[in-house]
Amino acid sequence: MDQKMIKKYFAAALLGALIFFLGFISDKLVVDKLSDKKYVKKCLVERENSYIKPNDFSFINPLLDCGDVGNVSHQNINIIKTKVVQFIDEQKANGNITRMSVYFRDLNNGPWFGINEEEEFNPGSLLKVPKMIAVLKEADDDHLILEKNILVKGATSTFVQYFKPEVSLIFDQAYTIDELVRRMIIYSDNDAAAVLGQLLGSNILYKSYEDLGISVPTDGGYLTSVRNYGSFFRILFNASYLSNKYSEKSLRLLSEVTFDKALRVGVPQHVQVAHKFGERTDGGKKQLHDCGIIYVPDKPYLLCVMTRGYSFDTLASIIAQVSRIVYEGVEEKKVE
Based on the structure, what is the number of domains in the chain? Predict the structure, then answer.
């Protein structure tokens, strides 16, 4: 091998080693940065400074996501959590619930707490939120898809709802995809959801799960936790998956949900709530959940509550009381 070839191979080997070394150092720096308390503190300050003024958007606040900061030990967070834990224990002792999970997160600067936050439940109609996200992700690429008309020929869902839609689809009538999304969210219409599912197919509907690193649902057997499900509301609030336009549209629709027997009850009417409920019957046991964003002025927070018990009405009342405990805690002792 001549001298020129030796130099060429040597240079290539040196370059490869250099790239590997720089990649290794880069990965290490990223990991170190995410675990660096100074970085997290700086990140949180930048989040506060980037707050979008109300005139720009009403429901979203695209901020730098600093990830989970951890169970912050601020006294007011602990007071709220302690009260909720005591309430849950009382309800269990009285036989009103069998299981319950709660996830709270301050959406301004990230403090959070969870109670049985990793326990899994059947989400029921909560899955209509990621279905909406999947449809609007398509609209980000082609907004005309929302104007497409679909003829609804008859009932397509077999699930019986305890909390029935206030408005149902009229069969043998055409609806735009935009209207089907609206009815699916605001009225929790199962037929609207089923039509959208059939129209778009599982590849499109479940792409958002894959993009976000969340397991894809299977018919009837899908389980999720309050913390995992809360991710959908976080990505809408931060506009980190959909565009600002469609993140805002999503949360606006969720603020118009007609179901008002759980989270909504615990919050004064002047405070906006963008939320979605879900129900499921499994044998003799019921599951009822309500998750969403409560827009306390200058202090929006995410609250997700999932329950198991024997009466939907009782479970709704319990969720409402948890919502009230959290709201009063946030308002009386500001989470800072």
Answer: 2
